[in-house]
Structure formats: structure tokens, C-alpha cells
Amino acid sequence: MATTDKSSLKLTKENLEAEDFLPLLGTDFVELYVGNAKQAAYYYMAAWGFQPLAYAGLETGLKDRVSYVLQQDKIRLVLTSPLKSGGDINRHIDAHGDGVKVIALWVDDARESYVETMKRGAESYFEPRAKRDADGEVVLSGIHTYGETVHVFVERKNYKGAFMPGYRPWKPFYKPTDVGLKYIDHMVGNVGWNEMNKWCQFYAKVMGFAQLVSFDDKDISTEYTALMSKVMSNGNGRIKFPINEPADGRKKSQIEEYIEFYNGAGVQHMALATDNIIETVTSLKNRGVEFLTVPSSYYEDVLDRVGTIDEDLAPLSELGILIDRDDEGYLLQIFTKPILDRPTMFIEIIQRKGAKSFGKGNFKALFEAIEREQESRGTL
Ligand SMILES: [Fe+2]
């Protein structure tokens, strides 16, 4: 395991002691269990610029559920709702509200990924199974991770269809333009008190990940609230999973608020990458996405902290985009308010200009912004 050295954020093979036995090629899809997949699909298309890709439901032979698949560049979302009462998906939604059920990982060999992770102590979600149609074969297998969240390994090297067998292409008339989102940069899990190390060890031992960086409560605290975080990464750096746990503060940590409303551990946010954060965030705002704001004083001395950047400060400050620098470059980032009814999941937009870190310099301003939201919800 890498140590908790905060000065070294370099993501290279050499200092990552990740044992890349799977290996993971990328995030294949993220599946959310939602109360109303049809309307959620419209939200992710209209507000977020996702494109319709595939559909499965009664018309494709499913009896108990419906799924809409959306795509924007390399990001694929699957939105699934139950069609009948009393099943597992219903229970999941009752317990957690809408939320991420599956973080699917693209692998070369889903059978081997299952065998290797099970050998290292994973808990099975489902055994390897092949799904076939006229476009070929997809092999899937699954293991559990924190809370009720699962990882599904997806092997699609012998498949040329739109998504996977069981789905048909979905081509509605309504197709809004995209907003320039490219890929999933990282996905963050919130876990309970004193559980961060357990889940970091899970990713190290079972998945062969290494620890990239660690933040303690001194890094991530305001006058009132605190949390701790460690970032786990696979060997090629395409999969990065920060894991947060609450820490003691004078008031209630945002992680506790999450755990309370989600009823346990789960995905806190997805960070989606763009090559032009000013354009992307301008589009998102125009389409109704709401972002956290920082006081304008943030921009008065930000360039003293981060040095010269390519962008004009005015549009960044107007949009509320945050800036941070590490020894490899800088990054631009912004966070939405919760995108669901419960104050659980949100989305980060990130543009990396060399930096491989996570915006530590913004934590204080950001968490004070979150506290203002918690205050308004009466959950601080
Ligand atoms: Fe993040």
C-alpha cells in the first residue's frame, strides 16, 4: 500500500503499488435504481445532454422492470425502475431513494475477474453468465461492495450491438444536444463511521487497487464539520474511488447526513470530465442544473494560491467554478446541489489541466457551501 503522503499525487505505475490482475479497462456503465425511469431518462437527456442508446422493458420481454440506457461520449447511464410491487428494486428504492446500484467495470474477461476477486475475498452478487443475441455475446459477473452497491464486470469484446443482449436500440424523436461530458473521472463512496479503512482494504485486497492519496479531518474540516477520505485507484488510473467517512465536528458531517438519508453506505457523487468546463457548465445551468456557490471573496485571492491559468477569471467566477493546483498542473471543478429528492447524490464537473489530484485546496470553501445547504435543510 502507498503511504498517506499528501505531497505526492503522481499517478504513475511506479508509485502505485496496484496489482492490476483484472485489469479494469474503464467504467462500463453506472446503473441507478429510480422511482420513474422514463422521467429520469428525460431529465438526464434534457438537463445533462445524455443521448438515448437502448431500452429494455415489457416490449423486449421483461416482466418486472424497465431500463433506459443513455450515453454521452464514454459515460453510460442505465436507469431502472420496477414495474411491479414488492421486488428487490422496490425495496432498494424504499430504503435508499433513487441511487446508484451498479458501478459496472469493463474487463477483458468477466469469468476470470469473478474468479480472481472471489479468490481474494469478494462476496458474490451473481456468478458469470453469458447473454447472447444476433450481435454477439456479453459476459457478466458481479460482486458486492459498500452498502448495497455492487460491481458488475462486463466483458464485451465479442459484442457489436448498441448496449447488450436483452436491450433494443432506443431512438426517440427527442434528442437534445450533449453538453461536452467525456468520461467518469472518479466515483465517490460514503461509508459509515470507522469504515473507510475497511473499504480501502477491500479495494486493495480484492480488486488490487492502491491508495493514491489520503485526507484526514485536518484537511477536510471547517469550523463546524469534518470528514476523512482516501482515494483508491486501479493500476492504469482509469478507475478512481475516493472513500469518505464522517469525522467528529461541532455539527453534523455532510457524510452523516448522507448516511442518514441513504440509509447506509452508497455512492455520494460521480465526477464527470469535460474539456471545456465553462461551456459545459454554462449549458448545464441554462438547462436547469443547480450548482453550489462559493462567496465572491473566493475569487479575490484564488490566483495567488493557484498561479496563472489559461482561462479568464471572470466566467469562472460568474459560474462559481473552483480552481486548485498540484505539482503537475491545475484543475477546474464545480459541484451540483443534490440531484435527487433526498440530500444524497450529487455530480461534480471536472476539467483537468495536468493536475491529478481532487481539489484539496477547495475543500474548505466547498464544505462551507455544503453547510449552508445543510443549514437550509435543518440537517446541520
Ligand atoms: Fe470528487
UniProtKB/TrEMBL annotation:
<dbReference type="InterPro" id="IPR041736">
    <property type="entry name" value="4OHPhenylPyrv_dOase_N"/>
</dbReference>
<dbReference type="InterPro" id="IPR037523">
    <property type="entry name" value="VOC_core"/>
</dbReference>
<keyword id="KW-0677">Repeat</keyword>
<dbReference type="InterPro" id="IPR029068">
    <property type="entry name" value="Glyas_Bleomycin-R_OHBP_Dase"/>
</dbReference>
<dbReference type="InterPro" id="IPR041735">
    <property type="entry name" value="4OHPhenylPyrv_dOase_C"/>
</dbReference>
<protein>
    <submittedName>
        <fullName>4-hydroxyphenylpyruvate dioxygenase</fullName>
        <ecNumber>1.13.11.27</ecNumber>
    </submittedName>
</protein>
<keyword id="KW-0223">Dioxygenase</keyword>
<dbReference type="InterPro" id="IPR005956">
    <property type="entry name" value="4OHPhenylPyrv_dOase"/>
</dbReference>
<feature type="domain" description="VOC">
    <location>
        <begin position="183"/>
        <end position="337"/>
    </location>
</feature>
<keyword id="KW-0479">Metal-binding</keyword>
<dbReference type="InterPro" id="IPR004360">
    <property type="entry name" value="Glyas_Fos-R_dOase_dom"/>
</dbReference>
<keyword id="KW-0560">Oxidoreductase</keyword>
<feature type="domain" description="VOC">
    <location>
        <begin position="26"/>
        <end position="156"/>
    </location>
</feature>
<keyword id="KW-0408">Iron</keyword>
<comment type="similarity">
    <text>Belongs to the 4HPPD family.</text>
</comment>
<dbReference type="GO" id="GO:0003868">
    <property type="term" value="F:4-hydroxyphenylpyruvate dioxygenase activity"/>
</dbReference>
<dbReference type="Pfam" id="PF00903">
    <property type="entry name" value="Glyoxalase"/>
</dbReference>
